[in-house]
Amino acid sequence: MHQKKNDAPRRDIIFSFEFFPPKSEEMEGQLWNAVRDLQDWNPEFVSVTYGAGGTTKAPTLSTVTRFLADTPFATASHLTCVSATKEETHQVIDSFRKAGVTHFVALRGDAPGGVGAPYQPHPGGYANAAELVAGLKQIGDFEISVSAYPEKHPESRDQAADIDMLKRKADNGADRALTQFFFDNDNFERYLEKVRAAGVKIPVVPGIMPIQNLTQLKRFAGACGTVIPAFLDERFAGYDDKPEERAKIAADVAAEQIEDLVRRGLHEFHLYTMNRAPLVSAVLNNLGFSRQTARSAGAAA
Ligand SMILES: Cc1cc2nc3c(=O)[nH]c(=O)nc-3n(C[C@H](O)[C@H](O)[C@H](O)COP(=O)(O)OP(=O)(O)OC[C@H]3O[C@@H](n4cnc5c(N)ncnc54)[C@H](O)[C@@H]3O)c2cc1C
């Protein structure tokens, strides 16, 4: 991919990074190495995911607490309301607030049976993310991000139902939506037009997944409802045993996707890091950022 000159700080793009709490000591080392490596990129904020299926809050809370204490990043905590009464959810919110969290990524979450299992709201809990946003707003003046699904949430009846839920989340006080990762920018643009036509005014921030491994991603994408376009197979064909070349293609693909979205008027992006730094850094380099210019753009902002 053609590289831009790095002589002026790039100011037309802002980005955030998503991490997940480590599940082992080895993964713990991997996360904090990645965080150290990504420190100079000056993201708008970072976010830490919340255990799937209503699992314990502890790993997210301890990870978020360390982000707040040891890094310069504005840090958001993801939060789900699955399998919990409202009181239990409020206790969780309170413990995050006490740890210094002011920004939540508010989600319904998946059924405890996993992605695709039928979802049963807890009878005494929040039934969906729109209700959770309203609950958060009653508790405090938090910054709130929510999810959006350009290719439709797998459980949604249709895209109109999906967009209606996004509108409810925005009407209840969400500040921005972060999308599920996608690779089809034409589809995203059509989706965004429908979102705007429905009266949703908050930023809808594309979720960008740099492709560490296309085969693994295909398994995961199916459950999320993300289509893997044929051009990706073509780009990666023949590179299965060539990790260095594969990484270069992955960085090009993600940077090209972002540049194309910038041409379509987008300027904010949420990068799924998978707790690894090199590919994310390569994408930002390809976009014409350098660590130094990212820092000075941040200082000037
Ligand atoms: C940016 C992002 C971050 C995420 N982070 C996490 C995380 O940290 N932890 C985690 O566990 N998961 C996470 N998820 C996954 C998310 O929890 C699942 O996609 C979940 O199934 C829906 O949660 P939601 O907040 O999007 O739901 P909602 O916004 O409440 O609903 C999503 C859509 O599903 C439909 N829907 C909801 N409930 C029903 C129902 N009962 N019947 C039919 N249709 C229904 C609605 O039409 C709606 O449009 C994340 C997803 C995204 C996009």
Automatic annotation (TrEMBL):
Keyword Kinase in record: no
UniProt enzyme class: oxidoreductase
Substrates-to-products reaction catalysed: (6S)-5-methyl-5,6,7,8-tetrahydrofolate + NAD(+) = (6R)-5,10-methylene-5,6,7,8-tetrahydrofolate + NADH + H(+)
EC number: 1.5.1.54
Entry cofactors: FAD
Keywords: Amino-acid biosynthesis, FAD, Flavoprotein, Methionine biosynthesis, NAD, Oxidoreductase
Biochemical pathway: Amino-acid biosynthesis; L-methionine biosynthesis via de novo pathway; One-carbon metabolism; tetrahydrofolate interconversion
Organism superkingdom: Bacteria
Single annotated GO MF: methylenetetrahydrofolate reductase [NAD(P)H] activity
InterPro entries associated with the record: FAD-linked_oxidoreductase-like, Mehydrof_redctse-like, MTHF_reductase_bac
Family as reported in the entry's similarity comment: Belongs to the methylenetetrahydrofolate reductase family.
Record-given protein name: Methylenetetrahydrofolate reductase
Source organism phylogeny: Bacteria, Pseudomonadati, Pseudomonadota, Alphaproteobacteria, Hyphomicrobiales
